[in-house]
Amino acid sequence: MNPLSSTYRLQLGAGVDFESARKLLPYLDRLGISHLYLSPIMTALPGSSHGYDVADINTVSVERGGEPLFRKLVSDARDRGMGVIVDFVPNHMATSHHNPYWFALLRGGASSPFADWFDVVWRKSGRRRRIELPVLGKTLREALNAGEIHVEPSSQGLVARYYEHRFPVSAHTLLELAQERAAHQGVPALPWEAPQATKLLDKLVSGEASNNQQRSWSQFNQMVFPEHRDEQTCSWISWLN
Questions:
Q1: By the number of CB atoms within 10 A of the CB, which of 88, 112, 154, 212 ranks highest?
Q2: What is the pTM of this model?
Q3: What is the DSSP letter of 37?
Q4: Dihedrals φ, ψ of 227, to 5°?
């Protein structure tokens, strides 16, 4: 491989992937380029045009061509004596449900195995340490009344959905809300402690029921909300208001 003397930066995305970069190698070779410098190659948010909103640092972007084509690009470059430089940007990770590490941080808080991956200043107080995110376009009550927030099952477990955003919901949070409603509105407490309901809720929250989320969701509704036995889904937010 030639020593580093000159680079050619190539912005992946917008129709430029590993295969098109590979086809440029003869031209770059004629220019005398020693190294091809690529923008981020890791999995970014779906449809990302630049790749700096990294979602998973452990996988090569399929949208850019995937790992096999990347390896082919590197191999062909080396055959010409050229090196490949990759723009590695862990500080640009996307704060999205597409990022499994960020999602795990939101679910587990300070106890998450990825808590030290992010620059979070945890407040020392009697309350469980949680992350506050400024994503609502209005007050929480206004967003709830407008029907903008929904709680639903997903492949990632039970999530709160706000437009394109997804946030993990813990079983402890649902139990707190249910107990608060029962205490302040004088409604009967629901059978959260029933072993079957608890088991299903744990699966929904953790994502273990991802192969058949809708069925597990319906079963849980039938146990906890017998009056909604014929419904496929249940509006948690309406019930908690």
A1: 112
A2: 0.69
A3: E
A4: -75, -15
